[in-house]
UniProtKB/TrEMBL annotation:
This is Type I restriction modification DNA specificity domain-containing protein. It holds the Pfam family Methylase_S. Residues 76-156 form the Type I restriction modification DNA specificity domain. Keywords: DNA-binding, Restriction system. Belongs to the type-I restriction system S methylase family. GO terms for biological process: DNA restriction-modification system. GO terms for molecular function: DNA binding. InterPro entries: Restrct_endonuc_typeI_TRD, Restrct_endonuc_typeI_TRD_sf, Type-I_RS_S_subunit.
């Protein structure tokens, strides 16, 4: 199924009363004020920002590197972004994993990327014609649950690794005093 058959481009403006969100690669959207990196913006222009709903997908300025991001909550984002809203019933986590996968970025999205280095952009006509899988909802759900389980295990393993590194550093400091 083509991306254009599964998603619609959305450009809802005039919601300047909503929270301004920013993209954090690998995380999705976060309130701009809560993100450590300070990004300045003209607060008088937020009426031109695009509204996103939870689970909308966002094609952002660095999507050619890290894939598409997902809106974690309702809010507004830069007018430079392309918002994709599902036309069909989908499991958002399934498509989030797919759109961020190395395979999608290097094999599918790459054909829509134009330019070199920092001058890269995505040709939207080509993008909308990219064919993506559309497995049955139950299959999407099972795959998403499996990926979520793996993410949980990875986070636990990373926490254990961080603790072991701290213990090692502590021992190293005591050994060489």
């Amino acid at each position: 199924m083509k991306i254009s058959e599964l998603f619609s481009p959305i450009s809802e403006k005039g919601y300047d009363n909503l929270t301004v969100l920013t993209i954090v690669q690998g995380v999705g959207t976060q309130p701009r004020e809560s993100v450590e990196r300070r990004i300045s913006y003209d607060k008088s222009n937020t009426n031109t920002y695009k509204r996103v709903l939870e689970n909308d997908f966002i094609l952002h300025l660095r999507s050619f590197e890290g894939g598409l991001e997902i809106a974690n909550s309702e809010g507004i984002v830069s007018p430079a972004y392309t918002i994709l809203r599902a036309k069909e019933q989908i499991i958002p986590l399934f498509y989030y994993a797919y759109f961020r996968s190395y395979w999608f970025i290097s094999n599918k999205l790459r054909i829509a990327v134009e330019g070199i280095r920092d001058g890269k952009s995505i040709n939207m006509e080509t993008f909308w014609n990219i064919v993506v899988p559309y497995p049955p909802i139950e299959e999407q759900k099972h795959i998403a649950e499996y990926l979520l389980c793996l993410d949980t295990k990875l986070k636990k393993a990373e926490a254990i690794l961080d603790r072991l590194k701290a213990i090692k550093n502590g021992f190293s400091q005591q050994l060489f005093i």
